[in-house]
Amino acid sequence: MTAGAAPLVLCQGVGRNYGRGDRQLTALHDVSCSIQAGDRIAISGRSGSGKSTLAHLMAGLDEPTSGVLSWPALGRREELRPGCIGVVFQSPSLLHELTVAENVALPLEIAGAEPSRARERALEALAALDLESLAEQLPDELSGGQSQRVAVARVLATGPPLVIADEPTGQLDHTTAERMLDVLDKTCRALGAALVLTTHDARVTARYDRRWRIADGALETGERS
Ligand SMILES: Nc1ncnc2c1ncn2[C@@H]1O[C@H](COP(=O)(O)OP(=O)(O)O)[C@@H](O)[C@H]1O
Ligand SMILES: [Mg+2]
Fold it and tell me: Residues with beta carbon < 5 A to ion ligand 2?
């Protein structure tokens, strides 16, 4: 971490309420933290503690209802994806009607790449993660672990400086989860990307040196932010 460098993500007193009027639920309360280039952080918390809410906010997929959330080193919320932030979700997020290679190429095409160049980059990313044999398969033909590794290849193809993975192993058995996390770590190292990963699993948290905790919508970093 370089002292004084603009953070990738800056949360200042961020809160997120769901619902309206007197039927409100505070999913996130007064969260302040920052993510710097190259950070590798695991955020652990029980089911319902606010992990997905925070991950989606940091990824620019949702907006806070209080506080200020910004991406000083990356740009405005509308500019973040797919180039600046790669997201891996808990549930399979591949489009069913597209092949694996087409799924991986899609964000590149959305970002303006020529279709032939996007396909080339997609195949390179799949090969880098030993997934090239799956290129012409449809998502419904893949196992859960394969789907998640393809989701990582999709991130690798766009090469963002920040990867946010929201319980990426939540639906995988332990051995498959370890393999998927190896692929995720390898990808982030290759990209020099920061990684923010949420999990409820202590075995996953143990892989990371920096561990933040979230409980009842409150984030405890144990660090000065
Ligand atoms: N779209 C939503 N509408 C209403 N409540 C929600 C919504 N999403 C999440 N919540 C609630 O917010 C709290 C935090 O949820 P979430 O961030 O999904 O937790 P986690 O990912 O840690 O399981 C939970 O009480 C959940 O029920
Ligand atoms: Mg969740």
Answer: 51-52
Apex 8 CA angle, 166 and 194, nearest 5 = 55
Separation of 50 CA from ligand 2 center, angstroms?
Answer: 7
Average confidence (pLDDT) over 117-132 = 94
- Give every strand in the sheet of 9-18, ordered side by side: 25-35, 9-18, 66-70
Instruction: Compute the mean pLDDT over every residue in the chain, rounded to the nearest whole number.
Output: 93
Q: What are the tens digits of pLDDT across the range 160-177? A: 999 999 999 998 899 989
Domains and CATH numbers, the chain: 39-51+77-213 (3.40.50.300)
Ligand 1 pocket member 187 (CB < 6 A): no
**Dihedral angle sign, alpha carbons of residues 78, 82, 86, 92:** positive
Q: Considering every ligand atom, which ligand is closest to the CA of 18?
A: 1
Question: Does residue 3 have its Cβ closer than 6 Å to ligand 1?
Answer: no
Q: What is the pLDDT of residues 55-73, one digit of tens each?
A: 999 999 999 999 999 999 9
The answer to whether the CB of 50 is under 6 A from ligand 1 is: yes
